[in-house]
């Protein structure tokens, strides 16, 4: 295949990487064989007990070294990520590398509280018992990540799993092998003990080998189609799986929104990362009353955008993955045929690279592919609605539910609409940024997947919960233990009074059982 034809070509043992910006050859990257995937998992299994037994401070010492490396060489790393993906350098710093200090600092503060054994309140019918909940690491975690944010979407689950005391094998996307290699180098230089974290490179077959290997959980970010396969592989064992899948996020612009802010947000949220974002604005609902004024602002904002390679001070780069071009063109053709208006853009750009014009599509309706399926490209589909209730109904009547946003000056109304949106996250008067807030749990509903990470959930995602109940052991016998016969009436009384909400009587009956048990020795 020609260099321009694809951003990455995979043969039996090598990934050939081509620049999405100009098609030049960026290097060949060896594919990890299934046997070597197993060896990486074996090393992770052997490294697990020692890593688990380190104190949090000891684990964070390694993460601090990693933080120092990223801090010292952030600009050079941003360049590698931008070469790999085509995204603006600013995006590589903001949406990829910033995750390192944000999440490490957050977990440093939160992990001691989150991971502490918790004592629960005493229960009425368990008067002599003390109850605790604690969490222990699962073991070896397989992390499989996509190409759109190849650094951040790998690093956050990996670092969270490590903080929680697990060891990890990471399989990044074959579309962005430069970033895969960069992460391998960063882990090596941070000096993690052998086997604690490894990177295996390759395509779906490498991912499938990792799913089959001796791991304790799969953390998967990617498409619904692959998510199904990953879940089926997990079901074979069975082991737990977390699926972070696609989205078709709704943005609802109400009649009283700050239109200037909302228009800028719609364009940024729709075109950031060339629209290749699971939480991209992919359905922009605008109420009739402000439609024309809002659309004029959106058009002006799109006109101001600069498209180009990472070094050209552009706002938007090319499509990272050449196959996306086909999806974008297919969705636009289908929309055109079904009566949509391509108001701006709509075509691949002249010249080398995988550039596509920022595209505004109006008169979008529910039966169009561009409405139903994830487009994952620089396309902003707009739907005119009579009011925000209709917008919310349409937003919810969809297979996906990842994030979304509501725009109104009435914050309590915004909060109410946000609560009713069927999604894992929803913002009021903001877009995309909630995913970068390390304290907020992230994950989807419906086909967008299940499970949560970020926030305390980001540690619990990689831990088994254990419940412990302690009795000081001072009584020789419990009220419920044998013999049964003399206690039946007291038990019946306990049950009936409990059901009737008569707690004092129920407790009296309960202690009666205890007395009878003791009398009988
Ligand atoms: P993809 O499903 O094609 O690939 C994701 C990863 O899975 C890659 O590393 C790939 O090599 C691997 N893989 C492929 N087949 C496999 C198999 N049989 N077993 C195990 N692993 C396998 O997805 P993509 O094209 O890389 O990413 C785009 C998709 O990811 C979009 O749908 C997007 O919405 C979604 N995404 C979701 C989130 C989220 O947080 N919810 C974030 C980013 C991207």
TrEMBL record:
GO biological process: aldehyde metabolic process
Domain Aldehyde dehydrogenase: 13-468
SUPFAM superfamilies: ALDH-like
Coiled-coil segments on the chain, per record: none
UniProt entry tagged with the keyword Oxidoreductase: yes
Keyword Oxidoreductase recorded: yes
GO molecular function annotation: oxidoreductase activity, acting on the aldehyde or oxo group of donors, NAD or NADP as acceptor
Active site: 244, 278
PROSITE patterns: ALDEHYDE_DEHYDR_GLU
Record key words, sorted: Oxidoreductase
Family: Belongs to the aldehyde dehydrogenase family.
The protein's name: Aldehyde dehydrogenase
């Amino acid at each position: 295949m020609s260099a321009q034809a694809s951003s990455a070509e995979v043969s039996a043992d090598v990934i050939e990487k081509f620049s999405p910006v100009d098609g030049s050859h960026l290097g060949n990257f060896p594919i990890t064989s299934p046997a070597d995937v197993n060896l990486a998992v074996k090393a992770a299994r052997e490294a697990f007990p020692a890593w688990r037994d380190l104190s949090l401070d000891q684990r964070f010492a390694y993460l601090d070294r990693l933080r120092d490396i990223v801090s010292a060489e952030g600009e050079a790393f941003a360049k590698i990520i931008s070469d790999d993906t085509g995204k603006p350098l600013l995006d590589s710093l903001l949406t990829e590398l910033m995750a390192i200090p944000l999440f490490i600092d957050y977990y440093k503060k939160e992990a001691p509280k989150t991971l502490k054994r918790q004592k629960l309140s005493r229960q009425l019918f368990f008067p002599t018992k003390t109850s605790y909940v604690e969490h222990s690491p699962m073991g070896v975690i397989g992390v499989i990540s996509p190409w759109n944010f190849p650094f951040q979407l790998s690093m956050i689950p990996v670092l969270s799993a490590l903080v929680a005391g697990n060891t990890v094998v990471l399989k990044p996307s074959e579309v962005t092998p430069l970033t895969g290699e960069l992460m391998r180098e960063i882990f090596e230089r941070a000096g993690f003990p052998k086997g604690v974290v490894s990177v295996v490179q390759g395509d779906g077959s490498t991912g499938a080998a990792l799913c089959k290997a001796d791991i304790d959980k799969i953390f998967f970010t990617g498409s619904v189609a692959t998510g199904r396969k990953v879940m089926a592989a997990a079901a074979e064992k069975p082991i737990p799986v977390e699926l972070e899948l696609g989205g078709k996020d709704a943005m609802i612009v109400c009649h009283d929104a700050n239109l200037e802010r909302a228009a800028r947000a719609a364009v940024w949220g729709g075109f950031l990362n060339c629209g290749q974002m699971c939480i991209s604005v992919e359905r922009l609902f605008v109420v009739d009353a402000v439609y024309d004024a809002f659309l004029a602002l959106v058009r002006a904002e799109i006109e101001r955008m600069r498209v180009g390679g990472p070094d050209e001070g552009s706002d938007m780069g090319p499509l990272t993955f050449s196959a996306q071009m086909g999806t974008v063109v297919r969705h636009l053709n289908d929309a055109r045929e079904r009566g949509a208006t391509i108001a701006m853009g709509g075509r691949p750009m002249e010249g080398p690279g995988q550039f596509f014009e920022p595209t505004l599509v109006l008169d979008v309706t529910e039966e169009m592919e561009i409405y139903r399926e994830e487009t994952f490209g620089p396309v902003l589909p707009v739907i005119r609605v009579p009011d925000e209730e209709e917008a919310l109904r349409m937003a919810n009547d969809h297979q996906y539910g990842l994030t979304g946003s509501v725009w109104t000056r009435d914050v309590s109304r915004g909060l109410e609409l946000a609560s009713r949106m069927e999604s894992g996250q929803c913002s009021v008067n903001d877009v995309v940024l909630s995913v970068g807030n390390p304290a907020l749990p992230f994950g989807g509903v419906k086909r967008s997947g299940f499970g949560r990470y970020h926030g305390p959930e980001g540690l619990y995602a990689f831990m088994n919960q254990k419940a412990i109940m302690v009795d000081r052991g001072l009584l020789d016998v419990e009220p419920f233990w044998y013999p049964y016969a003399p206690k039946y009436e007291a038990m019946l009384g306990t049950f009936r009074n409990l059901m009737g909400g008569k707690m004092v009587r129920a407790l009296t009956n309960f202690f009666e059982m205890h007395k009878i048990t003791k009398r009988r020795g």
